[in-house]
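Entry for the shared binder. Reason: the reviewer on the internal report wants the predicted structure included alongside the sequence.
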Amino acid sequence: MPADATLETSEKNQDDAQQGLKYPRIVPVGLNGFLVQFSGGLNEASNRAALAFKAAIDQQAWHGIEETSSTLASSFLRFDTAALTHSQMRAQLAELLGQHDWYQAALPQGRRLFVIPCAFDTGNGPQLSQTAELAGMDRATAIQSLTAAPLRVMAIGYAPGQPYAGELPPAWDIPRMEHVNPKVPGGALVVAIRQVIIFAADNPTGWRHIGQTAFQCFRPQQSDNPFALRPGDELQFQSVSAEQLFNLKSQDHSGDGGAVIRAL
């Protein structure tokens, strides 16, 4: 799971202010890495900045960069210390940071919208009624809220290809459970902290299981591109019946689970 995926944003930002932390900030990671943090917790602007800054680093094609990635509110890079010193790398990052207001930057190109069928019946969404009550809604209103608008894939993490998507409206700022679901199936839609996840595989979780898709986030048979989703893509869920979901699982062997995919 991304390190900042579990943060309660308002409390974390308050703690940061008390400690005098200012963003964006460049933080060394280990012997050969830097983390550029845009916030102490999740918000739309900091995620936008993290995605845009990571894309900008890739476009720079700096000599010695070995890896780049992004989390909910940070961009990471790993570099070859034989090619660049820490001070040189920090200076290049600082210069790039100063070139734009990254919190209002355009999102990376090549993004896609995935309209994904999802069953919300009690068999496929066993905790939806309980979760809707926590959000101050009835079951039907909750489904309408969850399917109303696209959600951005803000980060990939915890399991191969597994997306953290959001942000949902403020009513969905509900905590994770105090106990753990022993196992939710691959394709499960789970929710907490104004985010949803489609589980890449069967796994335990402290998030609430509210729906089920036939979408496969991780496709190891596709060795050239095993992750179906990328940070910056958007997901919109389409409510379907349990029977429709069963038919999709039986008939669609592509891994898309009946999803309609459009370029953004």
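Summary line for the report: The helical segments are 9-18, 44-60, 86-97, 128-134, 139-147, 242-251.
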